[in-house]
Design brief:
It contains five helices and 17 strands. It is of the alpha+beta class. The strands form four sheets. The protein has a seven-stranded mixed β-sheet, covered by helices on one side. A five-stranded mixed β-sheet has the order 6-7-8-9-15, with helices on one face.
Length: 340
């Protein structure tokens, strides 16, 4: 397993577009985080890397893109996250468009998303983005070069690592794991590799600073029930790589690499969520495949899937349909407040 950095990654200089947030916003030790798979969010330019239904569509044009952009931004405005993490964004130009649209919706400089980052694999259709009201620094992009399996590895999206410049250090890992749909073979095999990479990077970060607050977010394409869950009354070997588990909450997820033997305990708020909703609904069955994982000196409060105009009365998400240009996304956003 090797890590590679991709050229198509950047911390965007959005700060030049907007006025300063001021020192008071920087002193907060509590942040609201929103994560949302925006579902194939392409711009109006047809570059040949888009999904076929967008390339073939006669309705998808600049006006349709503008309307979808405005709908997305109104939803982000309503959720009012300090940090917004998005999956399935085509390019960094869309990140600029989102940031500019959001800036035009607010006269409060403390609400402006002055910083952002974006990354995707070269020649791939979609990537991940982070919008932030606080400065982002030290962005790294990690990918997998797997040569230990009998079959050729499919294209997998990279893992983004970025630091938030807040009163206390906060590290963020952004994930979009291999999908189950369209998989010719066992897609869980490749998600295990991605899980191992995430565990490895968390362990590396906590070896440098054991109490470092870490937030992992994204679309993991894996229900919380498919992770290894460890509870306080169950034995768990606190190996050298997971000593931070000594102060872990009652229920934890063990992120494991079956190939290196490394593992680390993280907290999932899904384990304490009492609601009926998930983040994705497939054939009228809820799945909880979009996640926040926490470790280090931080805690999660007020976690829940977010409903609004982008969801039906029963909470199911309203997916975007290219033939009608209606809908938002086939995923619900999730949100929580992290205190650190």
């Amino acid at each position: 397993m090797k890590n590679k950095n991709f050229a198509l990654a950047a911390i965007l200089a959005l700060a030049a577009l907007f006025c300063s947030c001021g020192n008071s916003a920087r002193k907060a030790a509590s942040l609201k985080i929103v994560n949302w798979n925006a579902q194939t969010f392409f711009d109006a330019n047809k570059d040949g890397i888009e999904y076929s239904n967008f390339i073939k569509s006669k309705k998808w044009d600049q006006a349709a893109y503008k309307e979808r952009l405005q709908k997305l931004c109104k939803a982000i405005d309503k959720m009012d996250g300090d940090l917004v993490i998005l999956e399935e964004i085509e390019n960094q130009g869309i990140v600029y468009d989102i940031s500019n649209e959001l800036a035009g919706n607010s006269w409060n400089p403390a609400k402006v998303y002055r910083y952002a980052c974006f990354a995707k694999k070269e020649k791939s259709s979609i990537g991940c983005a982070v919008l932030s009201r606080f400065e982002l620094t030290g962005m790294k992009v990690h990918s997998l070069d797997i040569q230990a399996e009998r079959e050729k590895a499919p294209q997998m999206r990279p893992l983004i690592e970025v630091d938030l410049a807040a009163p206390k250090p906060l590290k963020i890992f952004v994930n979009h794991w291999k999908s189950k749909s369209g998989a010719k073979n066992d897609s869980a095999l490749w998600r295990r590799w991605q899980e191992g990479l995430l565990a490895k990077k968390i362990i590396e970060a906590q070896k440098k600073n054991p109490s470092l607050p870490i937030v992992c977010a994204g679309d993991f394409n894996q229900d919380i029930s498919e992770f290894s869950v460890v509870r306080a009354d169950q034995p768990f070997g606190l190996e050298e790589d997971c000593r931070q588990a000594q102060n872990a909450p009652p229920a934890n997820v063990a992120l494991c690499s079956p190939y290196s033997g490394q593992k680390v305990l993280v907290y999932s708020p899904w384990l304490d969520y009492a609601g009926e909703l998930g983040s994705y609904n497939f054939r009228d069955k809820w799945e909880r495949i979009d996640h926040f994982f926490f470790c280090g000196n931080c805690s999660a409060q007020d976690f829940a899937p977010q409903t609004g105009e982008w969801s039906y009365d029963d909470g199911r998400p309203k997916p975007f349909k290219i033939y009608s240009l209606k809908g938002w996304s086939d995923h619900l956003p999730i949100a929580c407040r992290v205190e650190f």
